[in-house]
């Protein structure tokens, strides 16, 4: 199972996790939603469950639940600023299509 972070994403996550001292790492997951099927969830991991997989990437502890692993395998996570907008960008080889607004994907 491989998930990577760009240096830019790792720096951003490290800054954000420093503001949440109780965080166990960064939780990456997917949930069924949107017009294409799934969307990404990125938030501080308040707990690590026994069924979670924990990966250390560029000094960041990533926490991924068992159900999300097949959807995220091979994904590169970047962080980008475009004009006034900023956010995570996912380069996921498992994605077959995305919706017009870019908020959801299908596999």
What is the CATH first-level class name? Mainly Beta
Uncertain runs are none
Number of domains: 1
CATH topology: Hypothetical Protein Aq_1857, Chain: A
Distance between the termini: 17 Å
> What is the mean predicted local confidence, pLDDT?
88
| Strand segment count | 9
**Helix tally?**
2
Q: What is the structural class?
A: mainly beta
Give the DSSP E fraction (strand runs of 2 or more residues).
35-45%
Q: Could you describe the largest sheet, including whether it forms a barrel? A: 4 strands, mixed
Shape verdict:
globular
The SSE order reads EHEEEEHEEEE
CATH homologous superfamily title: HesB-like domain
Strand order of the largest sheet: 3-2-5-4
CATH architecture heading: Sandwich
Can you characterise this structure?
The structure is a single chain. By secondary structure, the chain is mainly beta. The chain has a single domain, classed as Hypothetical Protein Aq_1857, Chain: A (Sandwich), CATH 2.60.300.12. Helix content is 15%, strand content 45%. It is built from 2 helices and 9 strands, in the order βαββββαββββ. The strands form 3 sheets. The protein has a 4-stranded mixed β-sheet. The mean pLDDT is 88.
